[in-house]
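Appendix B. One record, verbatim.
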Amino acid sequence: MTLPLRVELAALFLCLGISLRAQDIAPAVEALANAVAPQPAPLEGKDRVKEYLKSLVRPSAVISNVLIAGLEEARNFPHEWGRTKTAFAERLGSQYAQYFLNNTIELGFSTIHKEDNRYTRMGDGGFFRRFGNVVESTVAVSNTRGGKTIALGQIAGAYGSWAIASQVWEPPSEQRVSRILLWGSVNLAAKGGRNLMKEFTPDLRKKFHH
């Protein structure tokens, strides 16, 4: 039995990070890794709403949702929707609606909980230290006072969006609690995958440029 698409994509993101060559762990490099990375200005009020609105329409979001819907169409997932003339529209609508719910729930919880869930790239240091920072970013984020807090917005968005989708429009095969837990976890892993790309993509660009 083949793995569902979202599981495969999450695994792909993680494998990409693991495939990168580990950085030198000489003391001088480790000293750089221990340095405090510069923090962006606190995310408050209108800036938070602007970030949210941008997340809904940025080209990468639109392209990724269309791509996932196309791949799910090719795999006939979920199978109840078949491959009719309207099936792709159903899958695309479902995918984007979940994305919208995810970001909206995350906005609400992160505002109440005073979270700043933007990822801060380390850029320097050993691979495992940087990869650990990526993993941590899925469950712990900065708060607006400069400390760290649990990523309540990200967690609520990941699981809440699928819980709503499964009960409102997803077919019976996706309405079980086990599926909500599965897809919520995959959604959370995908957020980590996004941060993984932010952390290591500049390194790959430099290598290809040289």
